[in-house]
Design a protein that fits this description.
Elements (H helix, E strand, L loop, with lengths): L10 H7 L5 E6 L13 H15 L4 E2 L22 H18 L3 E6 L4 H17 L4 E4 L2 H4 L17 H11 L10 E2 L22 E2 L5 H22 L1
Parallel strand pairs: 1-2, 1-3, 3-4
Antiparallel strand pairs: 5-6
Length: 238
């Protein structure tokens, strides 16, 4: 079986793989609270799993997931490990430069952590790299857009974090990671315009959505749609 996970490969195997592909997926996750029922690594688990399944359908390789991200509203919850905007942008540039030096020419950032600041950091890193490396191609796969045609599957229209979607996906990946009896439904209202000093004043469980609506069947459907979408991005980039 073809190896595709760089963490499991030797340097010679990576070198040989470059004869058939110059494409690599970089999964971006976080270490962040996800309610009472999901693990801190939820974003990383989802991004890595989708990336692996898409790589199985193509010749792309997959780097180990990046397990830290920009976390703002979730930062006060114990266990969340937040890094700065500049740290993410700088790390993205460094990773791409290293991959580029080894011969990769098509790089896909696949964020499972969807903070606006995280996405902007990746976007700015990509823009700076494209200006200095004319033969480099970069894509940022947007998970919500990959799932946009599944509105009939998703019941909770206010699902933003640790709710129906993420809980369903983790159930489909490894249901032992989900404590279903601790699932909650919470749709906190944050004051508009204000930069919050104490976001936990407005959140109890850390969920923004309704995790009680999650199911393994929904998760399988969501994962398959995401894998298909990411596979198409790989083909388009190549």
């Amino acid at each position: 079986m073809r190896k595709m996970l760089m963490e499991d490969m030797t340097w010679k195997e990576v070198e040989e793989s470059l004869k058939v592909t110059r494409t690599v997926i970089v999964p971006w996750g976080s270490t962040e609270e996800h309610g009472y029922h999901l693990p801190l690594a939820t974003d990383s688990i989802i991004a890595y799993e989708i990336a692996k399944r898409a790589a199985e359908r193509t010749y792309a390789l997959v780097t180990p997931p990046i397990n830290y991200g920009v976390c703002r509203r979730t930062a006060p919850f114990p266990g969340t490990v937040a890094v700065s905007f500049d740290a993410v942008r700088s790390l993205a540039v460094d990773i791409c430069m290293s991959l580029y030096a080894h011969g990769f020419r098509a790089i896909i950032f696949f964020p499972g952590h969807l903070s606006a600041a995280q996405l902007m950091a990746l976007e700015l890193a990509a823009q700076s790299l494209l200006q200095t490396h004319p033969d480099l191609k970069i894509a940022i796969a947007n998970l919500p857009k990959l799932l946009k045609n599944l509105q009939d599957v998703i019941e909770d229209r206010g699902d933003l974090h640790a709710g129906e979607i993420e809980t369903s996906m983790i159930l489909a990946i490894n249901r032992n990671l989900v404590t279903m009896e601790k699932c909650t439904a919470e749709h906190p209202t944050f004051p508009e315009h204000l930069v919050l000093r104490e976001p936990r004043r407005y959140m109890t469980s850390g969920v923004i959505g309704d995790a009680t609506k999650a199911s393994e069947e929904k998760g399988r459907t969501l994962l398959e749609a995401a894998v298909q979408g990411l596979t198409e991005i790989i083909k388009q980039l190549e």
